[in-house]
Amino acid sequence: MDKLNPVLPSNALQIKAELISAESALEAAGIETPRFEVQLLLALALGVSRTQVIAQTYSPVTNRQWQSFSEYIRLRVARTPLAYIRGTQEFYGLDFRVDRNCLIPRPETEMLVDYALSCLSKYSDIIDFTEFPVVDVGTGSGCILIAILKNINSAKGFAVDLSAEALHISCINASAHHLTDRIHFLQSSLLDAVRSQSCSIIVSNPPYIPNTEIGSLQPEVRDFEPRLALEGTDKDGLGSYRRLAEEGLRVLISGGKLVVEVGMGQARTVEEIFIRSGYIDIEIRNDLANIERVVAGSRP
Question: Which residues lie below 8 Å from residue 154, measured CB to CB, with a gap of 6+?
Fold first, then answer.
């Protein structure tokens, strides 16, 4: 990376040489797809598409653009996640602003949205979702709740997070997707601030990684994403699920659903937590990689 000169090279051959140098720097830093990411970061710096970068159909690079590109490469060599460098991440066909105060939305979490939408559609004729809203616990960027509400026009929701900084990001995203009037934001530890028997469905992707496993995560996750949203409580990392299951019985209406995302290998344990808490009609759904990813149960 030290070879990458932040001063704009004087001709196309020099630019090509610097791009090769940037690719080598990313590869040396352990990035699995260095050429792809160099193309993405150059596109970001130039304000064009990756296709234009590949085809070299962009305007001459300015010194400011080259300096931006050099800074992006420096950040990526330090293993800063691409989403944090870009400031956005796509989820469920929508763009979301993200920064280090919230988790980066992941494709597997879309399964949680799919399941919630199937529940809401099934009960749309018998439940008033404006009176009994969707509650998203640990909302972070707000991606789960926003994706749900964009697909259920009649619904309202509560975005709940302990982090004021995360709630700020979720507010920005709600505004960008024109949902501010349908979402109420609550700073709360799990469901503490939610009224009893006030909601139809709870969705959550709570922290579930045991403390002993945090150190083994990829640097992009371990060193940059918020620890509050990653590290689960209790020895097995499933303390939040135990609290959600207990508090969910208070908050949900009869027949209401608690729907959570779980880590690999945790679904059956979380299922037992739900059973012991008194939930019925418990289901486990697999993601596209055939990993048990979503656990759901109904309040009697």
Answer: 124, 129, 130
Nearest to 208 by CA among 199, 200, 217: 217
Q: What is the pLDDT of residue 10?
A: 59
Please report where in the chains the tokens 């135990």 appear, as a residue. Answer: 242
Report pLDDT for 4. Answer: 58
Extract the tokens encoding 127. Answer: 């439940």
Residue type, 174: A
Higher pLDDT, 228 or 58: 228
The model's pLDDT over 253-276, given as tens digits with 9 standing for 90+, comes to 999 999 999 999 999 999 999 999
Q: Which residues contact 124 (CB under 8 A, 6 or more apart)?
A: 152, 154
d(CA 83, CA 85): 5
By C-alpha distance, which of 187, 192, 141 is closest to 160? 187
pLDDT, position 1: 43
Beta-carbon contacts of 125 under 8 Å, excluding residues fewer than 6 positions away, are: none
Contacts of 108 (CB under 8 A, 6+ apart): 261, 287, 288, 289, 291, 293
Residue 257 CA to chain centroid, in angstroms? 21
Residues pairing with 286 in the sheet: 292
The DSSP line for 68-121 is HHHHHHHHHHTT--HHHHHTEEEETTEEEE--TTSPPP-GGGHHHHHHHHHHHH
The structure's pTM equals 0.93
Candidates 117, 50, 37; CA nearest to 80 is 37
Mean pLDDT for 156-166 is 97
Residue 135 DSSP label: E
**Side-chain-side CA neighbours of residue 126 (13 Å):** 7
Long-range contact list for 288-292, CB < 8 A, 24+ apart? Answer: 288/107, 288/108, 288/111, 289/108, 291/108, 291/264, 292/262, 292/264, 292/265, 292/267, 292/268
Length reported for the chain? 300
